[in-house]
Structure formats: C-alpha cells, structure tokens
Amino acid sequence: MFLVVVVERDIELIKRRMLLEMQRKMLAREAKKPAEAVDYYSVFLEHLTEDGREMFNRALEQYGEVAKKVAVKIGQLYHSGRLSGSLDASAVYWVFQEIGLPIRIETRIVYKKGGEVKSISDMLKEEEE
Questions:
Q1: What is the three-state SS of the chain?
Q2: By the number of CB atoms within 10 A of the CB, which of 7, 26, 94, 100 ranks highest?
Q3: What digits encode the pLDDT tens for the residues 87-122?
Q4: Which residue ranges of the chain lie beneath pLDDT 50?
Q5: Cα gap 45→61, rounded to integer Å
Q6: How much is the pLDDT for 127?
C-alpha cells in the first residue's frame, strides 16, 4: 500500500512537469510569432470628431512630429481600453495645453448691432476717423 501511494504521487509530479513543459513550449511559440502591428495613429484618428480633427490638424501644422507622437500615445491608450469615447476640439486643445503645447487658434471679436456685424478692429478704426 505504501508503494502505491508513492507511485501515485510520482505520477502526479510527472504529469505536472509535463504540463508545465507543454505550457512553456506554447508560450515560446506564441512569443516567436510576429505580433500584429497596430497603427495607433489611425486608432487615434478614428476617435476624433469632425471639429476634433480640425483642431488636431492645427496642432500638426504647429508642432509636426511632436503632435504625431502625442497622437500615437493617445491611440495606444484607446487600443488598451484605458480611454473610450470621442475627442472633440476642446478635448484635443486641452490635451495639448496640459502637455505644454498650446494650440494657437485664430480668434476674432465681433460686434453686432442692428443686424450689422463688425470686428473690433473695424470699430476702433471708425472711432479714430
């Protein structure tokens, strides 16, 4: 009876070792397979709204390669599931603002009176005359 118990333990140990060895071989095979290349930049672009895309284009004009690197990092966050939803213009603006790259946008102040729209610079010119 003692001999039977020892043999059963040995068989269990052998089974476990073989199972571990098979798992190691499977993991090694999977590690050798080329990983699917994910284009994180495209993932980022898919999550932009229309106005978000316009704001990102402004960032590209102003910061070029740095803006692309930011887009890739955000794309990685989307791909890993840490981010969800869409990015609109204000979200894109504030992302760049937070990392110290403010996006310069054209701003105009207009004055409306009686259906007439004038810019502040035009109004100031009229006052000088």
A1: CHHHHHHHHHHHHHHHHHHHHHHHHHHHHHHHCCCCCCCHHHHHHHCECHHHHHHHHHHHHHHCHHHHHHHHHHHHHHHHCCCCCCECHHHHHHHHHHCCCCCCCCCCCEEEECCEEEEHHHHHHHHHC
A2: 94
A3: 999 999 999 999 999 999 888 888 887 888 888 888
A4: none
A5: 16
A6: 77
Which residues, 6+ apart, have CB-to-CB distance to 91 below 8 Å?
52
pLDDT of residue 30: 77
On whether the 37-129 domain is CATH 3.30.160, my answer is no
Determine the residue type at 119. Answer: S
Position 6, amino acid: V
